[in-house]
Design brief:
Layout: E1 12-20, H1 26-34, E2 52-58, E3 61-67, H2 78-90, E4 96-101, H3 107-119, E5 124-128, H4 144-155, E6 162-167, H5 176-186, H6 205-220, E7 230-237, E8 243-251, H7 254-261, H8 266-283, E9 287-295, H9 303-308
Parallel strand pairs: 1-3, 1-4, 4-5, 5-6, 8-9
Antiparallel strand pairs: 2-3, 7-8
Helix pairs in contact: 3-4, 6-8
Bound molecules: guanosine-5'-triphosphate and magnesium ion.
């Protein structure tokens, strides 16, 4: 009789935070790994407002990436403070931190990140993204060696163990496979945090749909206006054919409403049409999307209004784990 052992080798499993300044390519990296636009990407800084988890399942195990908003100086209260709160929440108990740097940045802008790492209780890898710019903008890269050395030295006395540096071009999928291998090598063995291997994100379809609309606002409105916009899904009728979605775009002032709508409704039609195409691709089904614009005076600075839009500011120190 053949004897088989019941001993199963546990796979790798862990939480990996994507941390960095705005616009460095955190969301791009997560999307490249997952081959899906789980977290919206635009050329504008501060696109990501909330934590978004993206789940990679492989034979080697499961990596749960946590995409975070870009770290920037934020005044107390308000939407920017909410974004920083999301970053801090993500840093509460990960297995690994990927500190992502855009070579176009500079030492003084990165100091705030080093301060975050010093407070973290997890090992960190520095990821230099946008390496495709090396030939075009070699001058952007000169400060990095010194900066990496400084991080390495200053982290010696902290709980954040410095593991090394990787260079990638997330948008071109360069260096990403090697990065994934080194992440798996670093992670502990364990049960997957999300047992259902079909799930790509912890976020609901409604959330992703609202984000795809917000992405079009970032792409199609001027420099400032996207930061005054929020999107709420009013209704989502999945059983209807086509799937029928009603969404509200909130702005802060009456004058902004007219700009979002555009003359003769041209702007909002463009936003709706491009958002619909992306939602159809996400849902793999025909979609009817209706957008309306509403004013919620000063929503970016008033906690109760932010809460209504899903941006909940904690009164005391953010403390939720995992
Ligand atoms: N050249 C180049 N551009 C990149 C690369 N990765 C990302 N980008 C671009 O950088 C911009 C910002 O990318 P995001 O992924 O939105 O950056 P982010 O760090 O998530 O930004 P926030 O959400 O604002 O914090 C986009 O225009 C990307 O296409 C890369 O490897 N090379
Ligand atoms: Mg982002």
């Amino acid at each position: 009789m053949n004897q088989t052992t019941n001993k199963t080798t546990l796979k790798k499993s862990g939480l990996v935070v994507l941390l960095g300044r705005p616009n460095v390519g955190k969301s791009t990296l997560m999307n490249t790994v997952l081959k899906e636009e789980i977290s919206i990407v635009t050329p504008k800084a501060q696109t990501t407002r909330d934590q978004v988890r993206g789940i990679l399942n492989e034979d080697r195990g499961q990596i749960v990436f946590i995409d975070t908003p870009g770290v920037h100086k934020a005044r107390e209260g308000g939407i920017n403070a909410y974004m920083i709160q999301e970053v801090k929440r993500a840093l509460d108990g990960p297995d690994l931190i990927l500190y992502i740097i855009d070579p176009a940045s500079k030492e003084s802008a990165e100091e705030v990140l080093l301060e975050q790492l010093k407070l973290a209780n997890a090992p960190a890898v520095i990821i230099i993204n946008k390496s495709d710019q090396r030939l075009k903008r070699p001058e952007h890269f000169v400060w990095l060696e010194k900066w990496v050395e400084k991080c390495k030295n200053e982290l010696l006395e902290t709980k954040c163990k410095f593991l090394g540096v990787s260079e990638i071009a997330a948008v071109h999928d360069q260096g990403v496979d090697e990065l994934i291998t080194s992440i798996f090598n670093q992670l502990p063995e364990g049960e997957p945090l999300f047992p259902d291997v079909e799930i790509l994100t912890d976020r609901s379809t409604r959330f992703v749909v609202a984000e795809l609309i917000r992405k079009q606002l970032f792409l199609k409105l001027g420099e400032e206006l996207p930061y005054s916009c929020a999107v709420e899904i009013e209704s989502f009728k999945e059983k209807e054919k086509p799937i029928t979605i009603h969404a509200l775009i909130y702005v802060e002032r009456d004058s902004q409403k007219g700009i979002v709508i555009g003359s003769g409704g041209k702007k909002i039609k463009e936003i709706g049409s491009d958002a619909r195409k992306e939602i159809e691709s996400l849902l793999d089904a025909k979609v009817f999307l209706e957008l309306r614009v509403k004013v919620m005076e000063g929503w970016t600075s008033e906690a109760n209004k932010m809460k209504h839009l899903g941006y909940l500011l904690q009164k005391s120190k953010a403390g939720s784990k995992r």
